[in-house]
Design a protein that fits this description.
With 247 residues, the chain is an alpha/beta fold. It has a single domain, classed as 3-Layer(aba) Sandwich (Rossmann fold). Strands 1-2-4-3-5-6-7-8 form an eight-stranded mixed β-sheet, sandwiched between helices. Helix 3 packs across helix 4. It is globular.
Length: 247
């Protein structure tokens, strides 16, 4: 990861954080990912996952999705009082359609960086961000510029977005926990049916993780499931290596 990886930058219309992998340059551009936050914002956890991806060789941008709120919010950390109610309030105040348009713009701006291979930019989102990434992939595909890949961790908005499934025209990985109270297994099976077009799409993977609840990758003890987190991340690295390979 480059020395300037954690420097705040402005990407497109939103402030965000940019990570560039070691060796990325105009002569040797890197594949890239837009990483979309949970409802808690650009927390230390999300920043850590971005650094993990940069260490694998990806250029990464994490936009500050809550920057449009008044006042803007970067992150709610684990010691925030009333963490979940506060985060749900931020989500309720967000203009979803505006957020989709913003992230499409961020993706386009990332593709234009000289250190980035503009033909190899994907999306990766967690929880709220997993659903947002799905909707961004659909919007970009309808516009004729589908992302190179989509990874969605237990996308919380997916049940309300399944009418967009045919529009998501890129290789995709969806991961869920079998003990997710927010997305119970019957709902996950509905999601699987839609995103795989009844099992006919070979470029879409749906992976289930035994014992994992909602947000199982988040290290906060109220969410974390160590085995599910480890195995899902290994699947993520494998998937990205196959559809968005690093040179």
């Amino acid at each position: 990861m480059s020395a300037g990886a954690a420097v705040r930058t402005t990407v497109g219309p939103l402030p965000g954080l940019l990570w560039l992998p070691e060796g990325a340059s105009a002569e040797s551009p890197a594949p890239a990912l837009v990483v979309l936050q949970e409802i808690f914002g650009l927390t230390a956890y999300i920043r850590g996952r971005c650094a993990d991806l940069a260490a694998l060789g990806y250029a990464v941008v994490a936009p500050q999705v809550y920057a449009r709120l008044d006042p803007p919010v970067e992150a709610l950390e684990d010691d925030t009082e009333d963490l979940l109610p506060t985060a749900m309030g931020l989500l309720g105040a967000l203009d979803w359609g505006g957020a989709v348009a913003d992230v499409v713009g961020v993706r386009d701006a990332l593709a234009e960086l000289p250190e980035v291979d503009g033909s190899a930019v994907g999306l990766l989102g967690f929880c709220f961000g997993g659903g947002l990434a799905f909707d961004v992939a659909a919007a970009a595909s309808r516009a004729g510029t589908p992302p190179a890949a989509l990874v969605s961790y237990y996308g919380s908005a997916l049940p309300n977005l399944l009418d967009r499934a045919d529009d998501v025209r890129c290789p995709s990985l969806h991961v869920f926990g079998t003990e997710d109270a927010y997305l119970p297994m019957p709902v996950v099976e509905q999601i699987r049916e839609a995103v795989t077009a009844g099992g006919t799409r070979e470029d879409v993977r749906v992976e289930l993780h035994e014992g994992g609840g909602h947000a199982f990758d988040n290290p906060n003890p109220m969410f974390h499931h160590a085995r599910a987190s480890r195995d899902a991340w290994a699947q993520t690295v494998d998937f990205l290596g196959s559809v968005l390979p690093v040179r």
